[in-house]
Design brief:
Helices cover 12% and strands 36% of the residues. By secondary structure, it is mainly β. The strands form 3 sheets. Strands 10, 11, 12, 13, 14, 15, 16, 17 and 18 form a 9-stranded antiparallel sheet that branches. Strands 1-2-3-7-6 form a 5-stranded antiparallel sheet, with no helix packed on it. A 4-stranded antiparallel sheet has the order 5-4-8-9, with no helix packed on it. The chain is globular and about 50 Å long. The N and C termini lie far apart (46 Å). The structure holds copper (II) ion (CU). Copper (II) ion (CU) is lined by residues 98, 100, 103, 116, 118, 216.
């Protein structure tokens, strides 16, 4: 909290200095940047850095655009946190996105143990939820939210659970997986730097599932995490229930854009029979170097095909 208070004070100081500069600069040259800075406090200073912010994947920063994710001490079995706003105080007003004001996603650093939960907001701005973090290891917790008056944000923080850690290798790339008797098949492959269509088809006992239930405003919710740094990627469903063209299965289509070549883990949440399940895939975007851990070491490949080539060779 002390740090936040200091940072907030620093921000106020900056604003004051900027204001003075603005006063001087206006005489000489009315800089448009200063104009936007002078706008209402509700407008986040995102525009000036919009280009960079657009390119940086979500979830890599604990603080962005003046908003900071702060874990809060909680009883055993509970996970609690706040979002400190630009004024240093906990944010208490949020917009609803994908049916919820706050999406909390956790994954272990080895990309195992994914959970997606929805905390409850207390009037003082504290979010609480039964802890989704299970088992020893280094976890990354992502808070995906839109503060009222601000831009959508995904902030991330590390959470350590002490104990003996058994690192799990990333499962090999595959285009089919099973969960609780459901088979989920992936068509399409992400391409670095551009939007790709990913279609996930769900069947059970060999029969296509055609009565998926809406979950978070869609027939599926897809999260992608990059191997190596757990960059969190926004993946948008193509179509919404009730739009007249989107069917409740068996196929659910998403538009995904990955920032680099490399391995990603996809997590599809879907709801059927009143229960939400998560199907997981490893996918490789672009020409991943052998044993890839990080981003591209050269220009992003652009010549690969849009679809097909499922399960690029790995290892
Ligand atoms: Cu959610």
């Amino acid at each position: 909290m002390r740090t936040v208070t200091k940072l907030a004070g620093f921000a106020v100081g900056l604003t004051a200095v900027f204001g003075a500069t603005y006063g001087i600069g206006r005489v000489v040259d009315p800089a448009p940047v200063a104009e936007s800075r002078h706008d209402t406090a509700a407008a986040p200073p995102a525009d000036e850095h919009g280009g960079a912010a657009d390119q940086l994947p979500g979830g890599l920063l604990v603080s962005e655009n003046g908003y900071t994710l702060e874990p809060v001490d909680a009883p055993a079995g509970e996970f609690a946190f706040r979002i400190a706003g630009p004024d240093g105080r906990p944010v208490t007003r949020y917009e609803v996105a994908h049916d919820k004001q706050m999406h909390l996603i956790v994954a272990r650093r080895d990309l195992s143990g994914f959970r997606h939960v929805h905390p409850e907001l207390a009037p003082d701005g504290t979010w609480r939820v039964d802890t989704p973090v299970a088992g020893p290891g280094q976890w990354r917790a992502f808070a995906d939210f839109t503060p009222t008056g601000g831009e959508p944000l995904t902030l991330g923080v590390d959470v350590t659970v002490p104990g003996e850690l058994t690192e799990r290798p990333l499962p090999a790339p595959a285009t089919s997986t099973t969960v609780d008797g459901y088979t989920v098949t992936l068509t399409g492959a992400p391409q670095p730097g551009r939007t790709s269509s990913l279609t996930l088809s769900i069947s059970r006992d060999g029969q296509p599932v055609t009565d998926l239930e809406p979950y978070l405003g869609a027939y599926g919710h897809l999260v992608a995490l990059r191997r190596g740094d757990l960059a969190y990627l926004h993946v948008h469903p193509d179509g919404t229930p009730g739009d007249g063209r989107t069917q409740p299965g068996p196929a659910v289509t998403f538009l995904a854009e990955v920032p680099s070549a490399g391995s990603y883990r996809l997590y599809l949440d879907f709801k059927h029979g009143g229960q939400v399940r998560t199907a997981e895939f490893t996918v490789v975007a672009g020409a991943a170097p052998a044993g890839d851990v990080s981003g591209p070491s050269g220009p992003a490949p652009t010549g690969t095909t849009d679809h097909g080539t499922p399960g690029h060779g790995h290892n």
